[in-house]
Predict the 3D structure of the following.
Amino acid sequence: PMRKLLQAVEVTKRTLSAAPTAPCAVESLAGGMDYNGTITRTRFDILANKAYAPLEAAIEQALEAAGYSTEQIDQVLLCGGAARVRKLQTRVALMFPESTQVRSEGELDEVVASGCAAQASLLAQSAEPAQAAVSAQVLNAPVGLRVSSERMEPVLLKNTPLPAKRTVKVVLPAGETRAYIAVSEGESVPKAEVDEDEDEDEESGDEDDEEPPRYRPSRLLAEMILELDEATDATRVEVSFFVGTDGKLTVTATEPVSGKTITAEIPASN
């Protein structure tokens, strides 16, 4: 009976994507009794509403993980049977600016398979697959926050594929009214120098676990001062680094509570 019901519901869902109302009929659903009912698209949307929010959250997480904002997406291709639902199409479209094309045409159940077939066809056309690889643009040097003349906290490491985006949070001492942000290009500290510092720590009686690679600033890229209300122990400044495929670095510092922000753009170095 459950299989019959699921098949009937799938037919009803497909019908609602093209009509404002749809019937749902199942023969001998339980105890030899047939089921016949009708549902409107509005009623369906109300019942399915709780399923839309997790999907929107998944899209936001995917964008964040990839280092993109909605404004950077040119096209969204919906796939899968659920993509036929009009309300879902509308909610996905509202997540992106009007310049982003949200596509839902064709056989949505076959989109992934069609894409795999198209990609396989392109690979098969290459007589020398090894030469078909495209070298990705990468970051030439690490960039991050300059802590002192001898220390830099890296945010984006060397050879990071572009475009790339990462956000870090900076803690301010209580009472501060300005956040000083120094952005620097850096270089790794040679292991010999790191070992020398560790030897000095051992002689002084300090025993630390193995530390991650250290970096020091090599070239100051930008300095910013973000004016704030008096900071508390909970105050955090979010500093976002974005490097496009053209190599231009955009750094934005924001205090989420007050909404105050400042941005610096650093052109690509030759």
